[in-house]
Design a protein that fits this description.
There is one protein chain. The protein is an all-beta fold. The chain is 2% helix and 42% strand. The strands form four sheets. Strands 1-4-5-18-7-12-13-14 form an eight-stranded antiparallel sheet, with no helix packed on it. A six-stranded antiparallel sheet has the order 6-15-8-9-10-11, with no helix packed on it. β8 and β9 form a beta hairpin. The longest helix has 4 residues. The radius of gyration is 15 Å and the shape is globular. The protein starts with a strand and ends with a strand. The model has no long low-confidence stretch (mean pLDDT 95).
Length: 202
């Protein structure tokens, strides 16, 4: 496809065929070729309507397993919100987040607020985002690795900043998403560039 075009799917390069999709044209992110961004292609999310998702069992069951998330992104904002903005994650059918990588979540649920990034996995909002890196520089190109081993959580970024905490297994996943929470509407919409998302179950 040409640069600056909306896309309806981001293909899974593994053998699992876990493509994330968006059939609603008004909710599709924009593909930008590398020639427009220092040789680095990305998907552009607009902070209001863009998102991709999948409800495959192998993805929505991740919060009850050990897994690793790897995300490369660059936010256009540091605005703090209740849930912040979703890079990638899993949410319940009512839109409540239970696992993933978010930026800028409020301290209301244990987050670091403005310019923070969190890797989380809990079935409760209490201290959901306590595993986080503050003053993370989310408007710069950012690399985040979040790991869940049993209930142990850790996060590390490209600068070597880290945090650890204890998560809670959850079996309530309904959607695996990129760029927003998904239910009957969308929420916690990401505004910026997502270069890569890799998720590996263990």
């Amino acid at each position: 496809i040409g640069s600056s075009q909306p896309i309806n799917a981001w293909r899974d390069l593994s053998d699992n065929n876990n493509n994330v999709t968006q059939t609603n044209a008004s909710n599709q992110p924009i593909w930008i070729s590398g020639t427009a961004n220092r040789g680095r292609p990305y998907l552009g999310f607009n902070g209001s309507t863009s998102c991709l998702f999948n409800n495959a069992s192998g993805l929505i069951s991740l919060p009850n397993e050990s897994y690793t998330m790897f995300a490369v992104f660059e936010s256009d904002i540091t605005t703090h919100e209740e849930y912040g903005q979703v890079i990638t994650g899993i949410n319940k059918s009512d839109g409540t987040p239970i696992g993933g990588v978010n930026i800028n979540p409020l301290a209301t649920h244990g987050g670091g607020g403005t310019d923070s990034v969190s890797f989380y996995n809990k079935n409760t909002l209490t201290n959901l985002y306590e595993n986080h890196i503050s003053t993370a520089g989310v408007t710069d190109p950012k690399i985040i690795v979040g790991r869940k081993n049993g209930t142990a959580l850790d996060i590390i970024d490209e600068n070597g900043s880290t945090d650890t905490s204890t998560g809670i297994n959850s079996t309530d996943g309904a959607y695996f998403t990129i760029g927003a929470l998904v239910n009957s509407t969308i929420d916690a919409e990401f505004d910026g560039k997502i270069y890569e998302v890799i998720v590996v179950g263990e």
